[in-house]
Write a structure and sequence with these properties.
The protein is an alpha+beta fold. The protein has one domain: Muramoyl-pentapeptide Carboxypeptidase, domain 1. It contains three helices and five strands. The protein has a five-stranded antiparallel beta sheet. The protein is globular, with a radius of gyration of 14 Å. The chain starts with a strand and ends with a strand.
Length: about 140
């Protein structure tokens, strides 16, 4: 796993998580994660909690940079054209439901550890910022 090197803090409008997600904190920011061991020229931008864990949740009505990270990945790896505005609204929720169905997890529209683990995530070039692949 990569070490957390940088992240952007955003405000969080928090709503109640599902029972499964309740044990995890709400995602509060997007974090840039570098993996110097297996791919030293790339990074991932993923939802993170302020307690420095990617085991966190997002759901409808939240607004922060963690939502932006999720939206960016849904666009990059799953072909959506969501606004990367950081608002978890109807279109983001619908995209999450569709991806959840595709990857075989409970399609409830809430993002949490099971969805994160089942999704593929984009790797971006450190040099150019361009997407390299999704894995």
């Amino acid at each position: 796993m990569g070490a957390l090197l940088a992240g952007f803090v955003g405000g969080a409008a928090v709503s109640a998580p599902s029972a499964i997600a309740a044990a995890d904190p709400a995602c509060s920011r997007g974090a840039t994660i570098y993996n110097k061991v297996t791919n030293p020229t790339s990074y991932k931008y993923i939802p993170y909690a302020s307690s420095n864990t990617s085991n966190c949740w997002l759901d409808y009505g939240m607004s922060n940079s963690a939502v932006t990270a999720l939206q960016k990945n849904l666009n990059s790896c799953y072909g959506y054209k969501l606004a990367t505005d950081g608002d978890y609204g109807d279109l983001t929720e619908a995209a999450v439901v569709a991806v959840q169905k595709k990857v075989g997890v409970s399609a409830d529209g809430d993002y949490g550890r099971n969805t994160r683990s089942a999704m593929v995530w984009a790797n971006y070039s450190i040099e150019t910022g361009a997407r390299i692949n999704c894995n």
